[in-house]
Write a structure and sequence with these properties.
With about 150 residues, this protein is mainly β. It has helices at about 115-120, 125-135; strands at about 20, 25-30, 35-40, 45-50, 55-65, 65-70, 75-80, 85, 90-95, 100-110, 140.
């Protein structure tokens, strides 16, 4: 995958795609071998449980709202304008405990298998099935936690 010069419009993803990943909406914005970027909308009370990317660094730029996080077992909070850095191999989790929808721009470097993972997870409703699928795409989930609040 080579990067191409172009603009991904504000209210659209690559190829007009948007994925429902366990109630969250992920819209792919950019993909190459070096990185993958997606816009994420986290409805109230949604979360991504503790997981690790062994081969990718992951970043979150919070556009609107507040995300509570666990990063390497430390409780943190990020709000509009903050950039969260999660180096490869560090367990992390995200929680929307704010009472409002949250939007953020995520990206990972290198892209790895995340694009294929989100395509596969689209409309999967079982958390256990999502965890099982994720292993095949180099995302390793740990034991669940209740919240980062």
């Amino acid at each position: 995958m080579l990067e191409t010069p172009d603009i991904t419009p504000a209210h659209s993803g690559l190829d007009g795609v948007a994925w429902n990943v366990m109630g969250q909406v992920y819209v792919p914005k950019q993909v190459s071998e070096d990185s993958f970027a997606w816009h994420a909308t986290f409805p109230i009370e949604t979360f991504v449980p503790p997981h690790t990317h062994p081969y990718q660094d992951e970043y979150i730029f919070v556009l609107d709202g507040r995300i509570d996080l666990l990063i390497d077992a430390k409780k943190r909070s990020a709000q509009s304008g903050d950039l969260v850095r999660m180096p490869r191999g560090i367990p992390h989790a995200f929680f929307n405990n704010s009472g409002e929808p949250v939007t953020a721009l995520f990206w990972a470097a290198p892209a790895g298998k995340l694009l294929a993972l989100y395509r596969r997870l689209h409309n999967v409703s079982s958390p256990a099935e999502a965890v099982r699928i994720a292993r095949d795409y180099d995302v390793l989930f740990g034991p669940p936690v209740s919240s980062a609040a």
